[in-house]
Amino acid sequence: MLRITSLVKRYGDGAPVLQDLNLEVAGESIVSIIGASGAGKSTLLRCINRLVEPTSGCIELNGVELTSLKREGLRRSRRHIGMIFQGFNLVDRLTVMENVQCGRLGYIPYWRAALRRYPAEDIERAFHLMERVGIAHYANKRADELSGGERQRVGVVRALMQEPQILLADEPTASLDPVTSRQIMELLQSLADEFKLPVLINIHNVAEAKEFTRRIVGMRFGRLIFDGPPDALDADAMHRVYSGTPAEERGHVHPDILEATA
Ligand SMILES: Nc1ncnc2c1ncn2[C@@H]1O[C@H](COP(=O)(O)OP(=O)(O)OP(=O)(O)O)[C@@H](O)[C@H]1O
């Protein structure tokens, strides 16, 4: 269970990018986060894995308060937070197996990773997961020899190798063609059920969010302004999520707009 309470994030002394944000996500739930560019979706995911330091508020994952963790505690908790990226973030010159084993870096001694002497159980687990997502036959191929969809499957397996308690996916299908994109969304949906994981996906493709996730959260200027099933995301809700500008949100309406509407 992920529980976010009163989360605020400001970069420097700017206006808050996340404003008093509250969100709970149970295990086995796949949740899409939608919202216009700049709404704060990536910042939210980054606050969860502490790539970005929250200004205030609390983020709890399975009872552990992530926001107060330091050094070793943070390192331990981070290894259970699987990240999936738009650009896959693979090491091109490494093989699929080596990339996948990067998911174990928080668990094994450095020398093992450096010498590529991976524990037998990690190799077995990697093959099992690669078979599950259909890339086992590529185990010894270099990552840069794969298609985008195959590379994203490597990214998914790497995240699963972390024994994650949550998966955070930042635009995981934005670099993929429509067919492959749907396959990856379908995969994430089935993995959420199978591994009983909360999965949070930042996504611009609202049609895919509606088709593959049972809960959609809409952000606007750092606030959650929609939280419901796909059916509830009607034209009116879409307008609320996607309309407006940051200036209007602060109550500063441009004079041209006032003139145009007079
Ligand atoms: N490192 C940073 N320093 C300062 N401001 C930042 C930083 N990262 C993001 N921002 C600002 O925070 C706001 C929210 O950005 P964020 O990337 O979280 O939005 P987003 O909803 O993920 O957008 P997109 O859909 O375009 O990726 C934006 O105004 C952005 O300029």
UniProtKB/TrEMBL annotation:
<dbReference type="InterPro" id="IPR017871">
    <property type="entry name" value="ABC_transporter-like_CS"/>
</dbReference>
<dbReference type="GO" id="GO:0016887">
    <property type="term" value="F:ATP hydrolysis activity"/>
</dbReference>
<keyword id="KW-0813">Transport</keyword>
<keyword id="KW-0067">ATP-binding</keyword>
<dbReference type="Pfam" id="PF00005">
    <property type="entry name" value="ABC_tran"/>
</dbReference>
<dbReference type="InterPro" id="IPR050086">
    <property type="entry name" value="MetN_ABC_transporter-like"/>
</dbReference>
<keyword id="KW-1278">Translocase</keyword>
<dbReference type="InterPro" id="IPR003593">
    <property type="entry name" value="AAA+_ATPase"/>
</dbReference>
<keyword id="KW-1003">Cell membrane</keyword>
<dbReference type="InterPro" id="IPR003439">
    <property type="entry name" value="ABC_transporter-like_ATP-bd"/>
</dbReference>
<feature type="domain" description="ABC transporter">
    <location>
        <begin position="2"/>
        <end position="246"/>
    </location>
</feature>
<dbReference type="InterPro" id="IPR027417">
    <property type="entry name" value="P-loop_NTPase"/>
</dbReference>
<dbReference type="GO" id="GO:0016020">
    <property type="term" value="C:membrane"/>
</dbReference>
<keyword id="KW-0547">Nucleotide-binding</keyword>
<protein>
    <submittedName>
        <fullName>Phosphonate ABC transporter ATP-binding protein</fullName>
    </submittedName>
</protein>
<keyword id="KW-0472">Membrane</keyword>
<dbReference type="GO" id="GO:0005524">
    <property type="term" value="F:ATP binding"/>
</dbReference>
<dbReference type="InterPro" id="IPR012693">
    <property type="entry name" value="ABC_transpr_PhnC"/>
</dbReference>
<dbReference type="GO" id="GO:0015416">
    <property type="term" value="F:ABC-type phosphonate transporter activity"/>
</dbReference>
